[in-house]
Amino acid sequence: MFTYFKMMLKDHDFIKAALVIAVPLMLQQLVVSSVNLVDNLMVGQLGDVALSGVANANRYYMIAWSGINGMIASGVIYLSQFNGANDEERMKATFRFMLVSSLSICLIFVCLALFFAPNIIAFFISEENVVLRGSSYLKVACLSYIPGALSLCVSSAFRALGETKLPLKISVVSVLTNTCLNYCLIFGNFGFPYLAEVGAAIATLIARIVELALYLISLHRSAFAFKTRFKEIFHFSFSLAKEIIIKAIPLCINDILYSLGISTLLRAYSNRGLVANTAYSMSSTISDLFFVLFTGMATATTVLVGTPLGANDLKKAKDNAYKLVCFGIMCAMVFLVLMFGTSFFAPYLYNVSLEAQHLAASFLRVMSIFFVMYVFNSSIYFVLRAGGDTKSTLFMDSCFMWACNIPVVAGLSYFTGLNVILLYVLGQMTDVLKAGLSYHMLRREKWVRNLTAEKV
After folding, report:
1. What is the pTM of this model?
2. How many domains does the chain contain in total?
3. Is 382 inside a domain boundary?
4. Is residue 154 part of a domain?
5. 455 assigned to some structural domain
6. Is residue 373 within 8 Å of 328, Cβ to Cβ?
7. Is residue 246 part of a domain?
């Protein structure tokens, strides 16, 4: 790996290419995360109960989004490689299937949220007032999943072909819309009704609709090879759909299990009280400002590894993959310093108890210490996914979490009296073992495959 690190540092063209692809996506996610932080701060003005209710409702959103994203990510694998092979017809068919399948999954989660919102919130936390506030938010916010899923399909297709600036511009408009409406609807400003957390949900729904409208207009005006007509939406072959689903199943299972795992870990930390639940939710929102690196690395890997694989340039894809892992480590070193510094002021912007603020700051400092490890593991995950080795991604990611990380945290939470920060540190230390497993998966090189040469 050290050899590839030296190669990466000397390859200025590679670094430039990675930055050109990754930076706009990182900026896009930074805008989204920044506005999410502002939204979180606004809801936080309503108190610990409202903040915890919305945060736990968003846990369900992450589970739903994981299932949708798993299907879309599988489609992107083929879209990127078909692009490398200049196969426009199968690019169109892949995009159509991404739209149909993601919307189908989305509707299932929307129906569950509409009819079982209190039960869903109660899964994450048993506080009665939190369940009440969280379920009222979820019943409205779940409707935003539909335009959100369709927008994700279009934006993911853009990114698979290396178009990163347009999603950035659309995200800026969407998040600014969300923020302005939040300010009006949460607090009843400028003559709008005071709707508290329900106002935040309505703002999210409207912003998602605006975002989808902008994506559809952009797609209509574009000349991208995957562009298709609405009346042809169901025109894709069974064999292609089957191959995408086969790749998607491990990704969907992985993403859903991972999100459920995060929620299970939250329950374990919440065993130390509402303050721990609130602090963990605060630190997660703040840390999202730095986890934008993952979005940039994911897209850079899709383009710089997936496209040469589709063009059957396996050596270039392999070299780019190892250099991208090194590139991620280098960027992570900068981000960890910034995250650590942010812990000294960001949690204290919330209108919550001083104990929750101090606890959130401690969570952030622990995250910053392990940040390089997170990025190393995630970079390898993106490489495996780009080559279609989705079974390995399932094994190294969510399977590892449920076999190692969750038993450690849950066991210590329910059977010891350790304070929540020490509990969190011991849980994060399992990522050191995960790094060894991830590197082994990378070195096996089962991901070095040209999927376009296979029958689909």
Report:
1. 0.75
2. 1
3. yes
4. yes
5. no
6. no
7. yes
Q: Which residue is listed with tokens 């970079």?
A: 379
CA gap 407, 124 in Å, rounded: 17
Listed in sequence order, the residues at least 6 apart from 110 whose beta carbon sits closer than 8 Å to its beta carbon are 142, 143, 145, 146
361, amino acid identity: A
Q: Which residue from 445, 444, 443, 158 is spatially nearest to 303, judged by alpha carbons?
A: 158
Which amino acid is it at 445?
E
Strands (E), 38-190: none
Residue 456: its pLDDT value, please? 52
For the stretch 213-218, contacts whose Cβ atoms lie closer than 8 Å and that sit 24 or more positions apart, written own/partner, are 214/170, 214/173, 214/174, 215/150, 215/151, 215/154, 215/155, 215/170, 216/154, 218/154, 218/166, 218/170
For residues 142 and 110, what is the distance between their CA atoms, to the nearest angstrom?
Answer: 5
Q: Quick: pLDDT tens for 119-158.
A: 999 887 778 888 999 999 999 999 999 999 999 899 889 8
333-379 confidence digits (pLDDT tens): 999 999 999 999 999 988 788 998 999 999 999 999 999 999 999 99
Residues of the domain holding 76: 2-450
